[in-house]
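Retry 2 of 3 after timeout on previous attempt. Resubmitting structure tokens to design endpoint.
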């Protein structure tokens, strides 16, 4: 076996006394002892060490004192669990690398000093004393390394308002002064809801009706005595709270929501742990989990078009509290779609035709029906009959005034659609008139314009002194008038659809040049005024002259 082979090897041949040999021998020995202890299940305990366990504090030192007094030994070997710590020989101290700098050994009695303790140093230490003849005595001792200050809580988690939390800061050793810190800020203890109880080894902080704000960050305690100040490891306590009052968004829920719109109700609340949200439609649970109620889910309900009140409720499984949101009443409305107007398709004659206009929508509930003609509301009465449901308009009989663009506007609170129809009522011609001068001078240009009310528009022909002319337009143009243009001009308006003709006669007289200049121009008026003033001036001058020339009595 491996252990036996090593044992044989441990006893060196006589004369093999070099330092190198002993050094490696010591190292091997340490490992051998570890292995031996492991295989043999340890040897009978010798009184090398006092009974344990030994208690020590994190960051401090500990010394394992042996009961030996100047023992005769070849090696004293210290192990921790199965790890070599240190081997002392008559001439050297061999320290395992991880322990370098923090262990030392008393070369007289083999006591081990271990510094900068951590919790990982807790465990079983063993010491083996190997005599010159190879005899080995082994003993062990337990080390318990603890924090100097530890915060303990009466509860592992708490419910805001309901629970009283007692935190204890327990110290190893005695201290004069304890302090509680929230992060780095000293906690304010009011003596009412937060109460302190202290002695020289502990400080007890009692928090009645704990709030989420009482222990926001990690909490520490510190303890001070004449020698030093200790600080505990951070401590955190989970304080469950909520749900807080619910915010339901949007803040202003419309009373009518368009079906299929991108619309959600959202419920938000602060809660630890996160609240479970349930949605209700008129007090009936909806099958949707989570803080968002999409319109698509509302529309899955068979009565989705009915005005209903939607509410959410938040529940916290730890605090056992529940809160409800305000109710959001709304109804979902399908938009009006496919509005279409139908009207008469044949020829409509003023006086003896009837028109029925009707509008229909292919989808949506129509709540408002408005009829317009050329942008103005259609008023029922007389020839016009508006159906009670607003779906149609009947006009009987049609008259020329009914020509125009008709619109129906079908709407509900979420949408509106229009359709239109152009009504053409055939009539006329009526009110035939000719505009233009009735007297001109020779060489003047003349334009006579004929007009008539007619649907469709009338065709025009002109007669002069009873004779049909070539002119077939609404205007009759004479480039330069001559005497023989004097006479009667008759405009004839003809509507091919009604077959009716109406006419108007206009008389024109062509006069000699200059005979019509009865009207003076501005220049002429100015000339006349100047002329009068000059004449007046002359007259006054003559009068004054004549006075001077009053015949003086002759001296003769
Ligand atoms: C602990 O041991 C280290 C060396 O290991 C030493 O420097 C230090 O002074 C010791 N501290 C105490 C409190 O004994
Ligand atoms: C906390 O207190 C409230 C109100 O008194 C109560 O409804 C709730 O059940 C309590 N929670 C727990 C976990 O006891
Ligand atoms: C319109 O009335 C006229 C008589 O005034 C009649 O000759 C004609 O047939 C009527 N047209 C229609 C479409 O009823
Ligand atoms: C118009 O509608 C009315 C009643 O709805 C009906 O009596 C009439 O015959 C209809 N007229 C036409 C031209 O469709
Ligand atoms: C047309 O009639 C008017 C009045 O009757 C007459 O004075 C004129 O000479 C006639 N013109 C022609 C070209 O016949």
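Retry 2 succeeded. Sequence:
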């Amino acid at each position: 076996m491996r252990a036996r082979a090593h044992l044989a090897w441990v006893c060196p041949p006589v004369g093999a006394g070099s330092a190198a040999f002993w050094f490696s021998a010591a190292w091997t020995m340490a490992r051998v002892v570890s292995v031996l202890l492991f295989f043999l299940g340890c040897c009978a305990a010798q009184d090398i060490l006092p009974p344990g366990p030994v208690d020590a504090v994190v960051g401090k030192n500990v010394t394992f004192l042996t009961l030996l007094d100047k023992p005769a030994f070849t090696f004293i070997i210290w192990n921790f669990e199965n790890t070599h710590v240190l081997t002392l020989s008559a001439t050297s101290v061999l320290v395992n690398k991880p322990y370098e700098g923090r262990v030392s050994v008393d070369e007289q009695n083999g006591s081990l000093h271990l510094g900068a303790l951590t919790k990982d140093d807790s465990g079983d230490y063993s010491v083996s004393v190997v005599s010159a003849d190879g005899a080995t005595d082994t003993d062990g001792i337990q080390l318990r390394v603890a924090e100097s200050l530890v915060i303990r809580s009466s509860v592992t988690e708490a419910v805001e308002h309901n629970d009283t939390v007692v935190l204890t800061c327990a110290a190893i050793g005695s201290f004069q002064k304890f302090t509680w810190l929230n992060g780095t800020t000293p906690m304010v203890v009011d003596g009412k809801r937060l109460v302190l109880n202290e002695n020289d080894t502990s400080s007890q902080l009692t928090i009645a009706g704990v709030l989420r704000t009482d222990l926001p960050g990690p909490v520490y305690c510190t303890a001070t005595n004449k020698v030093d100040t200790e600080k505990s490891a951070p401590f955190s306590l989970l304080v469950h709270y909520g749900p807080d009052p619910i915010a339901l968004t949007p803040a202003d829920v419309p009373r009518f929501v368009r079906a299929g719109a991108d619309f959600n109700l959202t419920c938000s609340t602060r809660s630890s742990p996160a609240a479970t949200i349930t949605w209700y439609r008129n007090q009936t649970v909806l099958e949707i989990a989570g803080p968002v109620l999409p319109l698509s889910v509302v529309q899955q309900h068979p009565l989705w078009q009915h005005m209903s009140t939607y509410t959410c409720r938040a529940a916290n499984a730890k605090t056992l509290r529940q809160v409800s949101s305000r109710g959001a009443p709304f109804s979902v409305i399908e938009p009006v779609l496919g509005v279409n107007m139908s009207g008469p398709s044949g020829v409509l004659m003023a006086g003896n035709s009837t028109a029925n206009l009707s509008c229909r929508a292919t989808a949506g509930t129509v709540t408002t029906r408005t009829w317009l003609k050329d942008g103005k509301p259609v008023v029922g009465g007389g020839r016009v009959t508006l159906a009670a449901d607003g779906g149609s308009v009947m006009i009987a009989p049609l008259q020329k005034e009914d020509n125009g663009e008709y619109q129906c506007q079908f709407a509900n609170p979420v949408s509106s659609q229009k359709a239109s129809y152009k009504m053409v009522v055939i009539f006329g011609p009526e009110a035939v008139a000719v505009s233009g001068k009735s007297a001109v001078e020779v060489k003047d240009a003349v334009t006579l314009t004929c007009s008539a009310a007619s649907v469709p528009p009338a065709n025009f022909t002109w007669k002069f002194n009873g004779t049909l002319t070539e002119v077939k337009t609404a205007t009759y143009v004479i480039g330069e008038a001559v005497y023989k243009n004097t006479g009667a001009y008759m405009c004839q308006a003809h509507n091919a659809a009604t077959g009716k003709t109406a006419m108007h006669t206009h008389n024109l007289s062509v006069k000699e040049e200059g005979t019509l200049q009865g009207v003076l121009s501005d220049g002429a008026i100015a000339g006349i005024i100047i002329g009068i003033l000059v004449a007046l001036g002359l007259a006054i001058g003559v009068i004054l002259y004549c006075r001077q020339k009053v015949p003086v009595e002759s001296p003769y």
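Attempt log closed. The first strand starts at residue 54 and ends at 57.
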